[in-house]
């Protein structure tokens, strides 16, 4: 873990501000995300998903900067940011319902196709090989994440498995930065174990990549993330090792206190 | 039969008590994409394709001129619907300029031949002209959705037909123009046209099948189902929508060139609502977004056209009713029927098994 501690940040949030109308969602977010897992936690409405939307190009911040490997992502469309190596999943899984799981994963491989559609239309051997390689990689990723029956249509899977498929789709592009928005919500304990094992195996192979996880399942955060940042009313109130962060009285009041009060 | 067996196997593989109940389990099995990745299935498709092609090739030798004409027309509509289905079914855009682009093909080819271009060459040329026109239409249209897209493209399509009417020196205006029919030496004109139509249809279906079952088709469906979210996959939704417009326009015009050869006389009124609505019927009755729906839809429409021939101006109303019926009763089209039947039998079996437990 010492190597990751000194590694240069993959993504940097620099004084990021974002308001919707009069509602300041991100008041002032500064955060360095280094290779490996980083948890982003905080109560509902704290601005966690807004942070992901700002990095992935879906929202432009009002002020501040977001840098990916030192390069600003501001002003770039989601497609360009994705081509820079940012992959993400969504809170509610978004798949092509009548395509098989493996073909849904293959849709995520845009960075790996070197051939135009014309080469595919003509059935050129190199284009066929590209397709075959991506298919095999998609199968391998799904297997690593513990998904059975990869040839089944996506809409036939329960939501938990659909989220796993979405994670595999995000991984197929070999991201530099992987953004996971509540990957464990709706997953059974067994599925969570598979997800954790799959993600650990993937990061072991891609030590340079950073994974940012938004999650309410704090146990998952503790298992995966050496560091967690707590977002509260649009500010990072603290960050550090999950077990320390979760004991921080400020966090307990802001985050857990709210949950306890809600009778959770 | 083997598909059913596959589904049974898939259902048995669902561990009991894993998440949702048996009902969802049935859904899983029913939605299995059968044999997409197995080599055996693609070999089988190839063999079926060759048998069908041979059978179609034999038609002019065994059938009379009328049958040859009807099969030709069916194939022309099937090609046209292949393009329309690409736009409407696969890319999810209700663009309604298809009949007009079909007209561009018919007129473009007829005019080209009059200016001395060989007919076979006018097929791709007219296609390219229509593709460029479709790009012009598509450029604003890809930013619109649903109803607005439909209205905008409908208006642009009507403008194209109107322009064809106004270009009297070239097109003969509202009175129409006759088409020089190209013919292979040594066989009848009807048989010759038939073979050209068959060859073009075979090439179009072969290429489109390859494109739609590969990355292009997958990405189009992603654009249709995920919209702007495809950006996060590194895919430009707008670009794919535009390509769908151009390609669908190209195919429409290719079909149009053949239509002109079959009809031998073309006039603007042929390419208005009385053609557009049956074209929509072909897409939706066959099954929007399906691979072989265009063939089924075209065959269905040919029968319908025969039935409705005597209705005169009321034809469009009749087609409209059929269209509404098709969409409301069978949203997946006729090609989804077989799967649906399989499902229901399967659901029943599964329910029985649950009762037994």
From TrEMBL, chain A:
Residues 11-258 form the ABC transporter domain. SMART domains: AAA. Transmembrane segments: none annotated. GO terms for molecular function: ATP binding; ATP hydrolysis activity. The keyword DNA repair does not apply. It comes from Pseudonocardia thermophila. This is Branched-chain amino acid transport system ATP-binding protein. InterPro entries: AAA+_ATPase, ABC_AA/LPS_Transport, ABC_transporter-like_ATP-bd, BCA_ABC_TP_C, P-loop_NTPase. Pfam families: ABC_tran, BCA_ABC_TP_C. Keywords: ATP-binding, Nucleotide-binding, Transport. GO terms for cellular component: plasma membrane.
From TrEMBL, chain B:
GO terms for molecular function: branched-chain amino acid transmembrane transporter activity. It comes from Pseudonocardia thermophila. Keywords: Cell membrane, Membrane, Transmembrane, Transmembrane helix. It comes from the Bacteria. This is Amino acid/amide ABC transporter membrane protein 2, HAAT family. It is found in: Cell membrane. InterPro entries: ABC_transp_permease, LivM-like. It is a multi-pass membrane protein. The lineage of its organism: Bacteria, Bacillati, Actinomycetota, Actinomycetes, Pseudonocardiales. One of its GO terms (cellular component) is plasma membrane. The keyword Cytoplasm does not apply. The keyword Transmembrane helix applies. The chain crosses the membrane at residues 46-63, 69-88, 95-113, 119-139, 146-167, 187-208, 242-259, 292-311, 317-338.
């Amino acid at each position: 873990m010492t190597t990751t501690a000194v590694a240069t940040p993959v993504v940097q949030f620099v004084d990021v501000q974002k308001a919707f109308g009069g509602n300041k969602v991100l008041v002032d977010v500064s955060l360095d995300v280094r290779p490996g897992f980083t948890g982003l936690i905080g109560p509902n409405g704290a601005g966690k998903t807004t942070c992901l939307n700002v990095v992935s190009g879906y929202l432009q911040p009002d002020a501040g900067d977001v840098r990916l490997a030192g390069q600003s992502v501001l002003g770039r469309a989601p497609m360009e940011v994705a081509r820079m190596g940012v992959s993400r999943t969504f809170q509610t899984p978004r798949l092509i319902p009548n395509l098989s799981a493996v073909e849904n994963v293959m849709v995520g491989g845009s960075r790996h196709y070197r051939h135009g559609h014309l080469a595919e239309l003509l059935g050129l051997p190199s284009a066929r090989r590209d397709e075959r390689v991506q298919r095999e990689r998609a199968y391998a990723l799904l297997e690593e994440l513990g998904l059975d029956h990869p040839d089944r249509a996506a809409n036939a899977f329960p939501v938990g498995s659909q989220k796993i498929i979405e994670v595999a789709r995000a991984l197929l592009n070999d991201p530099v930065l992987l953004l996971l928005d509540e990957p464990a919500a709706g997953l059974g304990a067994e599925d969570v174990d598979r997800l954790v094992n799959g993600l650990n195996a993937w990061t072991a192979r891609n030590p340079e990549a950073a994974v940012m996880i938004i999650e309410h399942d704090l146990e998952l955060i503790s298992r995966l993330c050496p560091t967690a940042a707590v977002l509260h009313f649009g500010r990072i109130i603290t960050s550090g090792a999950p077990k320390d962060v979760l004991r921080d009285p400020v966090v307990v009041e802001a985050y857990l206190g709210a949950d306890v009060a809600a009778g959770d | 039969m083997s598909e059913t067996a596959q589904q049974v196997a898939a259902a048995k593989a669902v561990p009991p008590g894993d998440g949702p109940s048996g009902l969802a389990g049935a859904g899983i099995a029913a939605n299995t994409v059968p044999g997409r990745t197995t080599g055996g299935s693609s070999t089988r498709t190839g063999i079926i394709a060759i048998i069908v092609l041979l059978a179609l090739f034999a038609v002019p030798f065994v059938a009379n001129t009328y049958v040859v004409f009807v099969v030709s027309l069916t194939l022309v509509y099937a090609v046209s619907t292949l393009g329309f289905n690409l736009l409407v079914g696969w890319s999810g855009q209700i663009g309604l300029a298809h009949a007009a682009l079909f007209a561009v093909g018919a007129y473009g080819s007829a005019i080209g031949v009059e200016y001395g271009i060989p007919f076979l060459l006018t097929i791709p040329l007219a296609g390219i002209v229509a593709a460029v026109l479709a790009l012009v239409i598509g450029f604003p249209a890809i930013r619109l959705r649903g109803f607005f897209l439909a209205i905008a493209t409908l208006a642009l399509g009507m403008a194209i037909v109107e322009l064809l009417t106004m270009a009297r020196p070239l097109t003969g205006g509202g009175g129409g123009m006759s088409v020089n029919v190209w013919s292979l030496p040594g066989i009848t004109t009807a048989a010759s046209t038939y073979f050209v139509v068959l060859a073009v249809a075979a090439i179009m279906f072969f290429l489109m099948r390859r494109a739609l079952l590969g990355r292009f088709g997958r990405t189009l469906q992603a654009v249709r189902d995920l919209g702007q979210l495809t950006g996060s996959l590194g895919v430009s939704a707008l670009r794919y929508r535009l390509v769908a417009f151009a390609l669908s326009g190209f195919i429409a015009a290719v079909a149009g060139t053949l239509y002109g050869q079959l009809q031998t006389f073309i006039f603007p009124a042929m390419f208005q609502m009385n053609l557009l609505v049956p074209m929509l019927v072909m897409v939706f009755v066959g099954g929007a977004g399906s691979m072989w729906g265009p063939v089924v839809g075209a065959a269905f429409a040919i029968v319908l056209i025969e039935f409705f021939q005597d209705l005169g101006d009321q034809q469009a109303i009749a087609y409209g009713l059929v269209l509404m019926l098709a969409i409301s009763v069978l949203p997946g089209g006729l090609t989804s029927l077989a799967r649906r039947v399989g499902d229901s039998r399967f659901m029943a079996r599964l329910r029985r098994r649950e009762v037994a437990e």
